[in-house]
Amino acid sequence: MRSDQWWEARHARLVKNEEAFRQYNNRRLQHEPVSAEDDEEQIPFVCECGDPDCVQALVVTAAEFTGAHSAANRFVVLPGHVYPDVERVVESYERYQVVAKLDMDVDPSVAG
Ligand SMILES: [Zn+2]
């Protein structure tokens, strides 16, 4: 397997895992008896990092959760649960970090 193919396969797996957890967390938030702007109630979500074995709790408020997902490529992870080759940290807090996926939409003919 060429290295760029390996990288794409790895990236796809990481993103798939993170999107799955993000969807899980979104469903969870919909079942919480709080508004999406609530910043009092601490809600246990699941870490959205790319590690398929990571199911650690990540406790944030609904407002923090909603704010962290301001863009489609942003995910909430526990501090240090970051894969620097596919994402970068955009916000850091004591209890969690927000990561943004690096742009993958590169034209192969240009990238050479
Ligand atoms: Zn994690």
Strand tally: 5
Structural class, by secondary structure, is alpha+beta
Question: What spatial form do the alpha-carbon principal axes imply?
Answer: elongated
Q: How many distinct folded domains?
A: 1
Percent of residues in helices: 25-40%
Figure out the total of helices: 3
pLDDT < 50 stretches: none
| Bound small-molecule species | zinc ion
User: How far do the termini sit from each other?
Assistant: 17 Å
Mean pLDDT: 87
The major pleated sheet works out as: 3 strands, antiparallel
Strand order of the largest sheet: 3-5-4
List the helices and strands and how they pair.
Elements: H1 3-31, E1 42-46, E2 57-61, H2 62-68, E3 74-77, E4 87-92, E5 97-101, H3 108-111
Antiparallel strand pairs: 1-2, 3-5, 4-5
The structure holds zinc ion (ZN).
Zinc ion (ZN) binds next to loops.
Outline the structure in words.
The protein is an alpha+beta fold and 112 residues long. It has one domain (3-106). The protein contains 3 helices and 5 strands, in the order αββαβββα. The protein starts with a helix and ends with a helix. The model has no long low-confidence stretch (mean pLDDT 87). Bound molecules: zinc ion (ZN). The site of zinc ion has 8 residues, from loops.
